[in-house]
Backbone:
């Protein structure tokens, strides 16, 4: 406890670059501690090196007196540092003078001597320095490692007592961090009831309220089943001693709802508890959904309940603050530390930076590491080309070697995203505390060690989708519409299921990824249980094992549903005979093999974690139970094997059902209130340009107009304006909350802004500063004033000076003339005229707009390539929907690489987004094409793509065959060149002028003359022989137009060739 308190105070109160304590603090907390005089930086060695022997003796006497005889030792070390020899001569003399025992030690900064250089590079990473900097922070020794007994004896053998004392101190240390009991926080009972009585009272009151609503909705329920369930759970919770836990969780959830912070319907196995449902902790009826209490709390295994709670991401902090205040303050309640580790890609980047390897080379190696690789060793096994790439230079070889040594080490400490610990006593009596980077108090022990101390942990998670729901409801109310009661929706709502079956699930919780959309399109959900199944099915295990395919095929009657035993049908009917949920495994064990639910939970755990020894025990137990029930042993063995195979992929149905509820709620809102829902989505992702752009695409798909930002119309967040979405000012980069508040508030009070000068006169210019004004001008938010963006940017400095002067004059006049009257004053201002100048070019307008917003809103870069794309492309992202599956198409768009992927063969491929003015489509670039195009793929630009269209129900994907920058399309893809010859303008000798030009530019394009004779005669097209094939290059076009006139030459594009059908080379399973 004393050590914990000292470490806590050092971090919370004494931190200056490093945690520190002083002697005054040490005195009251020295009981039970052993002290050593430390390394060269310690107080006593520092005094000895300075020749201050008397002061060193005085310091040693202080620690000896404070800690007690045989509890303070003088350290001797052998580390190769010259100053250490001075200390090693002084320490034995002190030992003789003061009779203070010595101890042999060695500072251990790394495990073995060979790690010394890796440690130096780690120091460079920590300090942001480079290895080649001679002035960097470093240790002047390579001996700061964990030395063996033999090495210690060799180097300090002349101090035998000191070496013996090393073992003595180790034997003296008897710190036991073992958990003896749970340290439940005190719950304020208030009304004189015991904790158990209050728990039971609140649980039963909540149960009766829930039951009344259930009976109203479903009158035919068996009420006794519900009453038996609540009684059983209450008895178990009381017996296990956990009522306080439920009271606390119910308390902070209740408070969250009172202050308007949305709370999720449940998370994890807690949704299987009727008590949690009754106390308002969860929002799912566990009996209706077939959820099992023992999956949450196993009475045969005493372990703390684990209830994770989702809060609106914007309100999580409020609930945490309440919990801190309610349960004793920061001494009793704090968040939990987590350690960021040096992971494969990050450690390559960090080490490369420290060693001075060129950034481009480091980036190249890092991008070769597959996302699926757990570590660098796995990455090298999967992609041997990484090693080859690193062997190209000595620097990169060293980078890889050091990175493999440092990988997995802690890089930094931060606050865990969810973990909160609440104690019955000051936390520092159980563990040390630490100050986070934002000044918050957190534990020095991570999650696992904190729980091992018996401390009670709660998980407060922030869920963005709950914030989306909250903001959507607010927008619905703002429009004067009646918001839906999300906890009492019609779970057979036709409009919602139409949306789901069309895979129109962008923005829908858990259901918006492209892979999930593909599964939805195949599965065609028609009930809430189908949504529960989707959440469980869309995981690597079910997808790779074929479980998802079986579910889909059986649901649509294309594959028979067969049950090995009739008793399985009631259990597996909802999943068409597929063992999808862990709860199904538990029920099968109970029905067929007489397992109690507590035993069945043990089987579930063994299957999920693939614990071989436990599985064999359960195989014997299962076979025995099934035999007692008269079941055929061969079929029982077959069933157990199936359970073992697929049960390991089984998902927690309680969690799946709880998240399916949020999925349904968000789908319902999108189906019935699409404008408000998408506006809420855009607000939630306002700082993420890619996400806002994605939702703008969604607006196009739903024919929802997005209005640009406007200082006279926009709020801080995305708003609904006559069934359109008005851009929010908070999504403009560089425009902060304080500036927005000033802009919106002033507009509401004093009316619209009429000019840039008028704007600067009225807003708080300390908040809406020059940077803010530049962003507003660039994105067009001040266009409503009627001035050009170029004009406003040209006079911005003058406008700011003018605004500051007018505001000062008004403030001075207010003080001087009406100090006592309380009467306001409005001084007239002479607004300067805008300079007469042209607006910026369209390209400049767009680029500045994108700079301010992160994307284009009033135009698109493709607008400049419209003619080329119209000539070469045969579809766009809208007409693409009408093209048959597996057809070859040609399409233009702005290409952006989303992910570089390493195949099992070690080849690189890319997943890209191709965006035109209408929408975005995914483009897959396989290794062969990637090898030809990777040099320009890295640059975001407009391209034309030939690809095979892949359609799976409502999802579309392009499999690239050729990619050409739009600027080179005519040169590379033109099949013919047509020259327009007007017989009325040109004499016959014009062909003599054209011939040498054509001969100077030989190429692959067929040359054609389109001869216009007169208005009454059709044009004549003449194809030249192949010897006059020409090159569609700018020089050729320029020379021809010099002879024939502007616009008299154009290219003709060859039609897209259909691909020769081969065996499919790509599927979800192959791209790993």
Residues:
């Amino acid at each position: 406890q004393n050590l914990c308190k000292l470490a806590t105070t050092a971090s919370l109160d004494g931190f200056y670059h490093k945690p520190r304590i002083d002697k005054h603090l040490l005195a009251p907390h020295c009981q039970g501690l052993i002290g050593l005089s430390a390394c060269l930086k310690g107080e006593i060695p520092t005094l000895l090196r300075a020749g201050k022997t008397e002061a060193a003796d005085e310091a040693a006497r202080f620690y000896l007196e404070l800690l007690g005889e045989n509890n303070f030792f003088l350290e001797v070390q052998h580390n190769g540092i010259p100053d250490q020899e001075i200390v090693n001569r002084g320490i034995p003399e002190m030992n003789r003078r003061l009779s203070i025992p010595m101890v042999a030690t060695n500072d251990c900064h790394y495990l073995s001597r060979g790690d010394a250089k890796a440690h130096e590079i780690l120091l460079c990473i920590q300090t942001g320095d480079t290895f080649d900097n001679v002035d960097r922070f470093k240790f002047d020794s390579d001996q700061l490692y964990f030395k063996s007994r033999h090495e210690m004896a060799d180097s300090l053998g002349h101090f035998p007592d000191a070496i013996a004392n090393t073992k003595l101190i180790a034997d003296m240390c008897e710190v036991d961090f073992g958990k003896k009991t749970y340290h439940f926080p005190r719950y304020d009972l208030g009304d004189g009831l015991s904790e158990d009585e209050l728990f039971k009272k609140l649980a039963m009151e909540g149960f009766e309220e829930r039951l009344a609503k259930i009976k109203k909705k479903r009158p035919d329920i068996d009420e006794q089943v519900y009453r038996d369930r609540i009684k059983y759970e209450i008895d178990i919770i009381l017996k296990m001693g956990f009522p306080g836990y439920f009271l606390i969780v119910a308390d902070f959830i209740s408070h969250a709802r009172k202050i308007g912070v949305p709370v999720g319907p449940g998370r994890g196995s807690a949704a299987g508890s009727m008590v949690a449902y009754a106390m308002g902790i969860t929002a799912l009826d566990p009996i209706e959904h077939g959820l099992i209490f023992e999956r949450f709390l196993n009475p045969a295994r005493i372990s703390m309940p684990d209830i994770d709670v989702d809060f609106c991401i914007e309100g999580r902090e409020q609930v945490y603050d309440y919990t801190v205040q309610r349960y004793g303050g920061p001494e009793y309640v704090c968040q939990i530390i987590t350690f960021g580790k040096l992971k494969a890609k990050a450690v390559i980047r960090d080490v490369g930076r420290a060693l001075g390897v060129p950034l481009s080379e480091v980036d190249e190696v890092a991008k070769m590491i597959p996302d699926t690789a757990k570590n660098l060793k796995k990455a090298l096994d999967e992609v041997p080309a990484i090693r080859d790439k690193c062997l190209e230079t000595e620097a990169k070889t060293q980078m890889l070697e050091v990175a493999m040594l440092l990988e997995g080490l802690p890089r930094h400490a931060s606050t865990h995203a969810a973990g909160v610990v609440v104690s019955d006593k000051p936390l520092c009596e159980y563990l040390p505390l630490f100050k986070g980077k934002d000044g918050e108090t957190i534990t020095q022990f991570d999650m696992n060690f904190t729980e091992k101390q018996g401390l009670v942990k709660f998980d407060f998670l922030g869920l963005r989708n709950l914030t989306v729901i909250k903001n959507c409801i607010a927008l619905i109310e703002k429009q004067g519409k009646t918001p839906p009661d999300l906890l009492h929706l019609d779970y057979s709502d036709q409009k919602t299921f139409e949306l789901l079956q069309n895979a129109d699930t962008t923005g829908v919780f858990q259901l918006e990824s492209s892979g999930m959309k593909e599964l939805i399109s195949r599965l065609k959900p028609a009930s809430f249980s189908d949504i529960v199944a989707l959440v469980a099915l869309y995981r690597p295990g079910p997808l790779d094992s074929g479980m998802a395919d079986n579910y889909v095929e059986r649901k649509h009657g294309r594959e028979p549903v067969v049950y090995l035993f009739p008793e399985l049908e009631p259990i597996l009917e909802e999943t068409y005979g597929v063992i999808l949920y862990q709860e199904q495994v538990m029920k099968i064990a109970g029905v067929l093999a007489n397992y109690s639910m507590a035993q069945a939970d043990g089987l579930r755990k063994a299957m999920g974690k693939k614990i071989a020894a436990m599985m064999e025990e359960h195989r014997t137990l299962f076979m025995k139970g099934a035999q007692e029930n008269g079941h055929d042993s061969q079929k029982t063995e077959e069933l157990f094997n199936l359970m073992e195979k697929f049960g390991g992929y089984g998902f927690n149905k309680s969690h799946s059902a709880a998240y399916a509820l949020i999925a349904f709620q968000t789908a319902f809102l999108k189906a019935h209130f699409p404008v408000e829902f998408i506006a809420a989505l855009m607000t939630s992702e306002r700082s993420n340009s890619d996400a806002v752009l994605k939702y703008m695409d969604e607006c196009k798909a739903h024919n929802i107009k997005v209005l640009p930002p406007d200082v006279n119309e926009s709020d801080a967040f995305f708003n609904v304006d006559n069934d359109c979405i008005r851009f929010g000012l908070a999504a403009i980069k560089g425009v902060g909350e304080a500036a927005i508040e000033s802009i919106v508030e002033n507009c509401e009070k004093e009316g619209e802004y009429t000019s840039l000068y008028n704007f600067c006169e009225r807003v708080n210019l300390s908040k809406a500063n020059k940077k803010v004004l530049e962003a507003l001008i660039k994105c067009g938010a001040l266009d409503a004033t009627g001035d050009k963006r170029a004009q406003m940017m040209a006079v911005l400095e003058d406008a700011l000076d003018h605004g500051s002067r007018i505001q000062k004059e008004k403030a001075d006049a207010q003080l001087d003339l009406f100090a006592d009257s309380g009467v306001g004053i409005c001084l007239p201002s002479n607004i300067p005229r805008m300079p007469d100048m042209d607006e910026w070019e369209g390209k400049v307008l767009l680029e500045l707009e994108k700079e301010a917003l992160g994307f284009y809103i009033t135009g698109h870069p493709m607008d400049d390539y419209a003619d080329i794309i119209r000539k070469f492309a045969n579809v766009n992202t809208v007409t693409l929907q009408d093209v048959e599956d597996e057809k070859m198409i040609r399409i233009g768009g702005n290409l952006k690489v989303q992910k570089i992927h390493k195949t099992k063969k070690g080849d690189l491929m890319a997943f890209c987004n191709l965006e035109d003015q209408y929408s975005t489509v995914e483009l897959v670039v396989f290794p062969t094409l990637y090898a030809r195009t990777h040099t320009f793929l890295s640059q975001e630009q407009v391209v034309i793509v030939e690809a095979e269209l892949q359609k799976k129900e409502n999802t579309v994907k392009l499999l690239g065959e050729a990619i050409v920058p739009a600027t080179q399309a005519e040169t590379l893809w033109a099949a013919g060149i047509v020259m327009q010859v007007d017989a009325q303008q040109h004499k016959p000798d014009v062909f003599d002028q054209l011939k040498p030009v054509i001969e100077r530019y030989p190429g692959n394009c067929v040359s054609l003359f389109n001869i216009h004779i007169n208005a009454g005669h059709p044009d004549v097209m003449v194809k030249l022989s192949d010897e006059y094939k020409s090159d569609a290059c700018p020089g050729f076009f320029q020379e021809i137009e010099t002879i024939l006139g502007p616009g008299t030459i154009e290219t003709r594009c060859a039609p897209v060739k259909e691909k020769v059908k081969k065996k499919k080379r790509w599927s979800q399973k192959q791209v790993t």
Observations:
- Residues 466-667 form one domain.
- The longest strand covers residues 888-902.
- Confidence is low (pLDDT under 50) at residues 821-827, 1063-1072.
- The CA atoms of residues 449 and 551 lie 41 Å apart.
